[in-house]
Amino acid sequence: MADLKAFAEQLVNLTVKEVNELAEILKTEYGIEPAAAAVAVAAGPAAGEAAAAVEEKTSFDVVLKSAGQAKLAVVKAVKELTGLGLKESKDLVDGAPSEIKKGVTKDEADALKKQLEEAGAEVELK
Fold first, then answer.
1. Which pLDDT score, from 0 to 100, does residue 1 have?
2. How many CB atoms lie within 10 A of CB 81?
């Protein structure tokens, strides 16, 4: 067990150059292409922290990037999804990029994005 822990510490502390050399040895001598593993080792503990930060996101903003070719359909979809009036919906679509809804759950954001994209809009979740 102690040998494996020491080995793990050595891997985590490798420089980028050493990781590339290790990857080349594994590829040429053993036929293993460790591209994903090399990136994970090179990133070290910071990669795990970044992944945890991404997973923790629970609130999303739905942003209309552009109305696309079917502007009228997008205006109707925005009106239906937001409860705004026709003029306000049109102004929102004309002012793209603009936020459609802020602070919604992942499921709700995905549903809004899907409906807007079906209408022809280009949508981004933030």
1. 58
2. 17
